Amino acid sequence: MELQGKIAVITGGASGIGLALAERFIKEGATVVISDINEKALNEKAAEIKATPIPANVAIEEDVRNLVEKTTNRFGRIDIFVSNAGIAKFGGIESSKADWDFTMGVNLMSQIYAAKHVLPQMVERGSGYLVNTASAAGLLVEFHSVLYSTSKHACIGLAEWLAATYSEAGVKVTVVCPGPVRTPMSVGVAAMQEDAIEPEELVNQIIEAIEKEKFMVSSHEKIWKLYQTKAQDYDHYIDLLTQRRAYKLGLDK
Question: Measuring CA to CA, which residue among 78, 36, 86 is closest to residue 56?
Fold first, then answer.
């Protein structure tokens, strides 16, 4: 899909990957709506890049429905919906139900709500694009947080289901599974700074994937290779993962 002339919505658009995507989408000729829970930052950034701001808490279905409806009412349609908003809350198996609900609400349910409310118009037109941000933690593991890792695995499963279910209806899906990226979310986590790339580098990969209608974006070759090992020999993969855990956690000591 070419971005020129398209109507795009990007959640988590006031900072990090979402903001970098919005800027690039606009340069490519798209009309962009950015959404974020931080209304002050959202309005400031939207004015800077000449995007349309619509605030939303994407963990609340009504907010996502309103985001879709307001955008459609203003611009007539949504061609591309980028479910990029996400949070990283650290925690192990002792994490509370409130922490699980919060993490799954923002990282997973937001993407479910977006698909639920934007797909009907895309299917009716016979065209549309969903870009869902997951993480390399959904391909492998984020050792600092079972909350984050589990939610991102679920995001990839959702994207696979959507891609297989709606492809014949003309709706394409790309799932973004980056390794470390220098964003506000990664600040202060030493293990996330190793091999980190700039948001603009990831954006280049996402744009290429959209143009080629490619399902998976994986930003780091070594992560992709480990994921391939996972598919070929799960026991060996778990051994490697155990070794990697000790190394990664050691970076933060």
Answer: 36
Decide if 237 is inside a domain: no
Exposure on the CB side of residue 161, measured as CA atoms within 13 A:
10
The pLDDT mean for the chain works out to: 91
88 in helix, strand or coil?
coil
Q: What is the dihedral of CA 148, 154, 155, 156, to 10 degrees?
A: 120
* Active site members: 148
List all residues 6 or more positions away from 63 whose beta carbon is below 8 Å from its beta carbon: 56, 57
Q: What are the tens digits of pLDDT across the range 72-109? A: 999 999 999 999 999 999 999 999 999 999 999 999 99
CATH of the domain at 101: 3.40.50.720
Could you give the number of structural domains in the chain?
A: 1
What are the counts of helices (DSSP H) followed by strands (DSSP E) for the chain? 10, 7
Q: Which residues contact 80 (CB under 8 A, 6 or more apart)?
A: 1, 3, 6, 7, 8, 9, 25, 30, 128, 129, 130, 131, 210
